[in-house]
């Protein structure tokens, strides 16, 4: 990917900052305990000398403990909502910061905390600085590295909103075959079935 980015113009880069700890010599990681150092600054330094110098960088994360590689061993790459809030807090002032991307929507929908899916947690963090039902994190230093990055991911997942603890916001999922998350909509919305697999608050 480094060669492609160096010779092309990208507006957005969705970078997989997980499941790459062993990728030498430049691991791409969130800097969580047990991970390689977080290397967002490496990416900004790298793109500064390319046609993609104005690209926005999205921090790619797994949407639950199984999302990184499909098994329990991938949990080391998972950032809890509180950890994700700290990562964003320490990165959002960088002009290259574009937001969060995650793998994948299904994993997010199955990961419900404080009445929010992981995607809703990410949206709440971007809007307020805190996960659903939480408070803003105190900025802390994450380990960093300065090696040239070479890996990228392009999968995206969009957040669907956030709401008070134990309730579902407008357009949030509130039911469907196999759904195990919260079912109570924020007033005045009601849970409306839109098919066998999906109901949302409208």
Automatic annotation (TrEMBL):
Superkingdom field: Eukaryota
Pfam family name, one: CBM_1
Region (Disordered) location: 138-169
Keyword hit for Methyltransferase: no
Keywords, comma-separated and alphabetical: Chitin-binding, Glycosidase, Hydrolase, Signal
Any GO CC annotation of this UniProt entry: extracellular region
One record GO biological process: carbohydrate metabolic process
Gene3D superfamilies per the UniProt record, alphabetical: Glycosidases
Keyword DNA-binding: no
Amino acid composition bias (Low complexity), ranges on this chain: 139-167
Any GO MF annotation of the entry: cellulose binding
Record-annotated GH18 domain positions: 1-129
CBM1 domain mapped to chain residues: 166-202
Protein name, per record: Chitinase
Organism: Trichoderma semiorbis
């Amino acid at each position: 990917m480094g060669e492609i980015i160096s010779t092309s113009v990208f507006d957005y880069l969705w970078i997989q900052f997980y499941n790459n700890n062993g990728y030498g010599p430049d691991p791409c990681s969130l800097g969580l305990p047990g991970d390689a150092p977080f290397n967002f600054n490496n990416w900004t330094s790298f793109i500064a000398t390319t046609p993609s110098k104005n690209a926005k960088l999205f921090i790619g994360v797994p949407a639950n403990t199984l999302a990184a590689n499909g098994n329990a061993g991938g949990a080391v790459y998972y950032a809890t909502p509180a950890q994700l809030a700290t990562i964003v807090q320490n990165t959002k002032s960088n002009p290259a910061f574009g937001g969060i991307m995650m793998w994948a929507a299904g994993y997010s929908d199955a990961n419900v905390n404080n009445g929010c899916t992981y995607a809703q947690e990410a949206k709440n963090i971007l809007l307020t600085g805190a996960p659903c039902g939480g408070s803003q994190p105190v900025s802390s230093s994450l380990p960093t590295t300065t090696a040239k990055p070479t890996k990228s991911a392009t999968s995206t997942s969009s957040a669907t909103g956030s709401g008070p603890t134990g309730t579902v916001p407008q357009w949030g999922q509130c039911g469907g075959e196999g759904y195990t998350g919260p079912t109570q909509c924020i007033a005045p919305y009601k849970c409306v079935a839109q098919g066998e697999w999906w109901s949302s608050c409208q």
